[in-house]
Amino acid sequence: MSSPRPFAGFELMLASRYLRARRKSGFISVISLFSFLGIMLGVTTLIVVMSVFNGFHEELLGKILGFSGHASIYRADQDPFENYQDMAAKVSVVAGVKTVIALNEQQVMVSSLKNATGALVRGISSADLSKLPDINNKDLQTALRAPPNIDKPADLKAFDQSNGVIVGAGLAQKHQLVLGSTVSLISPNGPDSPIGNVPHSREYQVVGIFKAGMSEYDDNVLYMPMAEAQDFFGTGNTATSLEVMVNDPDEVQGQVAAMLNASGSDMLVQTWQARNVAFFNALAVERNVVTMVLSLVVMVAALNIISGLYMLVKDKSSNIAILRTMGATRGSILRVFFLTGAAIGTLGTLAGLVLGVLICWNAENIRRGIQWLSGVDPFNAQFYYLAQLPAKISYPQTLGIVGFALLISYLATIYPAWKAARLDPVEALRYE
């Protein structure tokens, strides 16, 4: 008996027989089953966790950039500045700049019959408000009508003349606000008096409720017409910052010098990378550490392949000896046991790939199912900032996980297969 070519039919037949349970080798088959399950769960977990991290990064980046812009321009002393309209016009012609939005931002106390909380007021014109996709989206509720077309659909152009505020959905829920409700804003920087600044308050009607999808903004931000904000805070015709949107957010650092030349020497430019460097670095470190830890699951499963194959070699030593005496080469024996272990690793990896992709495609439905069954939200927006569980599959990354699992599985089969090939037929049959 000889093997005319590598991976001949009898080698495949023997490998498939060794994979099936036998009465005498049932324990070995159980080890193989656990090896298969370990690799499957390891690959599934890696794919799901990495996809969730990718989703987090993309969603948070999109929400942060949609709210604060790709770069912020403000005075070095952080005081309001008057020539913001001319400055915005100059910055808008810088190469690569898409839009420039002027803001008048101040902290206030929001008071209602139900609650009292702090919030950030963003004074903004209706033209600039319409440029914010995370605010002017399908979830925006507004009763604004541009007169005299009061019967037509809502129109943000009427925001400048509304003398009202647009609040976040989380803030509206805290204060039980609906369209048309009245809310009091209290500013700590009021008019001067003999005893210093006196806080002053003013009531505003809620003319809109937005939902950006990030609790940090939905719970703590409200928008006010620019002219009304300037009057309420007593800052005159000024803005506190310019938010700049560029065509390529990753290349914004190269446009900082041009923005400074356009805005003036007394201004500062802060990019989104500098503003959120600690946050995104922490996210990257967490992703790397979790990846390393979860990779150990695949390695442990590979160790099970080694132990299972080694015990299989011991159990089949007499069979190996008989095959050798019939003419099977050492290479044939090595390939038989390599195929046995590789089949476990390959099937486990493919099953993990399919299961991981299915979970990622249905991540939000699974979260809702867990919440319905347990009564506890495993992805609370107050802790994780986002309103739903994001999962974005990176196909190059997924292929890397599959390749890693296959490589570890194949390497795990080499030593037991080599031991089987080196088995001496005389020693194996001596006590038979």
Shape: elongated
The string of secondary-structure elements, in order, is HHEHEEHEEHEEEEHEHEHEHHHHHHHH
Low-confidence spans: pLDDT under 50, at least 5 residues?
Answer: none
Describe the main β-sheet briefly: 6 strands, mixed, barrel
Task: Tell me which oligomeric state these chains represent.
Answer: single chain
Counted by DSSP, the helix tally is 16
Proportion of beta-strand residues = 15-25%
Strand order of the largest sheet: 2-3-10-5-9-6
Q: Find the count of extended strands (DSSP E, 2+ residues).
A: 12
Summed up, the domain count is 2
- What's the N-to-C terminus distance? 22 Å
Describe what this molecule looks like in 3D.
- The chain has 432 residues and is α+β, with helices and mostly antiparallel strands.
- The chain folds into 2 domains: 9-61 and 279-429, no CATH class; 77-265, no CATH class.
- Helices cover 52% and strands 17% of the residues.
- The chain contains 16 helices and 12 strands.
- A hairpin with a 4-residue loop joins β2 and β3 (116-124).
- The radius of gyration is 33 Å and the shape is elongated.
